[in-house]
Amino acid sequence: MEGLSVSDANLVVYLHPSTGNNVHKAILRELSSMLLRYNDTFEGIVLAYEFNILDKDAKILPGVHPYFTVRLKAKLLLYSPKPDMLVEGKVVKVTQESIHVIILGFLSAVIIDRDIREEFQYKSKHGKQLFVSRSHRRHVIKVGTMIRLLVKSVDEETLYIYGSLLPAHTGNIIWLDKQMEDTSLTDGSAKRRKGNDGESVMQEPSRISAETVSVNNDHHVKKSKKHKTQ
Amino acid sequence: MGVELRNNEAALDEMAEDGDFTDSDLVDHIRDILCSVTSGSPAALAENKDYERLISVVSHDGGHGADEEAFLVTTLEAPSRAVSCIDHDLHNLLLSAIFRMNLWTYRPQVMDAVIHFIVSLASSNGMFVDECLAMLTKQFFPPRSFQLPRGLTRKGQVLSRVHSTLNDIADVLPLSPARLVPIVLAATPQYRFHDINTLSVVMYVENMLKLESGALGEVVRIPMLAGMVELLLDLDIGWDDIEDDSSKGIFEMELEAVDKSTDDDLNDGSEITRKLSTKISGSNSFAEKLDSLLVLTFEHLESCEVGGRLIEVFETLLESFKRTVLTAYKSKFAQVIYTKLDIYEACQLTHMQSLPMFREMMENLGGYYVMFDTFFMVLISVLGLCRMSAVSYLASYLSRAKFLSASVIASTLERLVDWCSKYVKMQNDKVNPEAHRVFYSGCQAIMYLLCFRMRSMMDVPLLKSWLLRLPLESVLNNKLSPLEFLRQSKAAGLFMTLEKFEFNDFLESELSKEFGGRERLDMFFPFDPCLLKKSDRYIRPKFIFWSMVHPTYDIDEDSCDEDIGESVANENVDGMDYAILQQHYDLDEFDSALNKMSITPKNSLHSTFGGAVNKPMRMPSRIRPSTSPESL
């Protein structure tokens, strides 16, 4: 999925003297406070981290409380959804006016009716709400479906994504992938198969940026970004 | 808001007149109305009659007839399908009208409509999440007119909806529980106990606990429990702040409760008694709030036990105990705090006894180690004050908890003695109350523990021989001379060991003039009897009262440890720990000494041992004649 990246960061953590008996724990606590929040410095949401303490000696910050400064080299898994990215998520709620999606298990996204393309028609069957494509009856979006959507805007403070299903290459992932497979087979053109298990990575060629590293190959580490916290 | 509402009737009529809408027509209509709003100011509102009417319907909160309610429901359903048109700034009048709605005043249908709107709003736009959660949190408080037996159905209707809504929102917004936590904690009645009645406080905490045990528990458990502990602690402190003579307050209350009294407090007591009894009986008193909250907590812990998640809860409570309660030691009048610790006690108690797994652990001494380890860890930590209170918690807990087996106590006592004797070996110093106060409190704790538990340990032959081998001599009789110091300090008022025993004695039974005049004790034993009426039934069965220990020395006085006897033999007897000193007196004197420690009414503290034996029960304080203490 787009927007995921691994960053190498040089960090400086300031620890309260009371945490001196267990520095490792204190660092974990400090870094964990960044998790699942949008971080301006990293321009993304920190999903995971690992770190090495660079130096066994820590500098002491003069002041009322002699904080000590620990320098770290950390690897951060960042997620930075940006407008016009394609993201994938699981539908958790469907109403006539909106589709609610959860991305990566924690980010909420909503697609309001204006951003659902005309092709989709709202139906309520046996008490279950769903959107069905008028042209392809099998293209269905209901609770539990993995869908691909386009990011319209991101509210970084509340971690809220406003999405859109207007472009044709958005919708039910399984259906889209199957469609693509069929097309490529009939066209005889270059095959672009990816694992179709719903967790797959499928990116428009134009959208793969140099900075993006997919989850599936995160051993491929990007070294360019270096950050420092204050 | 500055909105002048038009006549509501007219507004309703006009909207109703607009005709026979189908649902989608109505939604479209509402959308049009919402989209036509171009400014959030009241001035713009006046130009937009439709919007104004919409607001007036929503904010109309007088009595509701069936028609009006049906109309309100329809009016609310429509915007909940048009939430995507709602703008945070443009429609702030409408939003604030809805956020002001109080579910408690509506019928279930309207509640559902409001709830539906709130869920749609929260899930449609990140900007509204906090406000929606705050609106729901506000429903944790019942309206002022609410009374319990009558409003029980209503309470169920509102709160079940609120909690299921919070879960619904969390389904769509996985991070919403994390946002909910600060909102709930900020709304706790922490700093406004004066303005709020007991029922509201209890209900709020009940809701916090419901969140803790609900689907969101995983995220909110720790902050909710910690918040509850802080609330209780604040209630303790607040109580203390209010009453100048808080020490008297507690004891007076106990006197009233058990309808026993002494003559000692007559001189200065009667007026205060009256004052306090009104405070305590008043429905808004801190004592009552604390009491009710403790009951609630006990009930919750019991339900956790039934649900099998006591261990998680216990761990959280232990952590917040370490952080909040232990460190609060010096900041308050000490005795009040014990009420809160009963939670931990109850926590320990309820579960360990009943869960088979824990019973086994208890036999292996493992179960309590978690807790005692905490105390010992604090003991060897750096913070002096924490260490002292850790010692006293340890001693007090071990002494008072009925369910602890002799072997658990013995092993912990051994650790304590061990710690003390190591401490002695490390020191070359002379008597120094300031520097060695942790050590002195350790000695104090050992003695306290022996007072309560010696008998039960003596019953076990193995433990008896072990007890006799304990290096008590080296701990109590050395260059730091704790006993010597304790005696001197009595005069100095620095370390109240000896009075401490008397104090405990009194805590259970009576008020003395001496006690009332005392500003603060440097050492306290937190698990002293709880005097709050309602929560008493939870604590009593698990509790060892001094009166229960009392027979120990009747029977056993000869067999009491000689080594202790020897160690204290050189000491001035006056003011010595009764339990240890008993063997120095003949039986009559000893009986009278025991009387002093028992829960039955007795005479003044400073009478000599033989002074007052077996006084008859005295009249209740209110009708007693005002005389000086008989014993004097």
From TrEMBL, chain A:
SUPFAM superfamilies: Nucleic acid-binding proteins (SSF50249)
GO annotation terms (biological process): DNA-templated transcription initiation; transcription elongation by RNA polymerase I
GO CC entries: RNA polymerase I complex
Subcellular location: Nucleus
Keywords on record: DNA-directed RNA polymerase, Nucleus, Transcription
Location, primary (coarse class): nucleus
Sequence segments annotated as region (Disordered): 185-230
Keyword Disulfide bond set for record: no
Biased composition, class Basic residues, residue ranges: 220-230
Protein role: DNA-dependent RNA polymerase which catalyzes the transcription of DNA into RNA using the four ribonucleoside triphosphates as substrates.
Protein name, per record: DNA-directed RNA polymerase subunit
UniProtKB/TrEMBL annotation, chain B:
Keyword Protein biosynthesis annotated: yes
One Pfam family from the record: RRN3
Keywords of this entry: Initiation factor, Protein biosynthesis
A GO BP entry: transcription initiation at RNA polymerase I promoter
GO cellular component, one term: nucleus
InterPro entries: RNA_pol_I_trans_ini_fac_RRN3
Domain of life: Eukaryota
Molecular functions per Gene Ontology: RNA polymerase I core binding; RNA polymerase I general transcription initiation factor activity; translation initiation factor activity
Family statement drawn from the similarity comment of this UniProt entry: Belongs to the RRN3 family.
Name of this chain's protein: RNA polymerase I-specific transcription initiation factor RRN3
Protein source organism: Pyrus ussuriensis x Pyrus communis
Phylogenetic lineage: Eukaryota, Viridiplantae, Streptophyta, Embryophyta, Tracheophyta
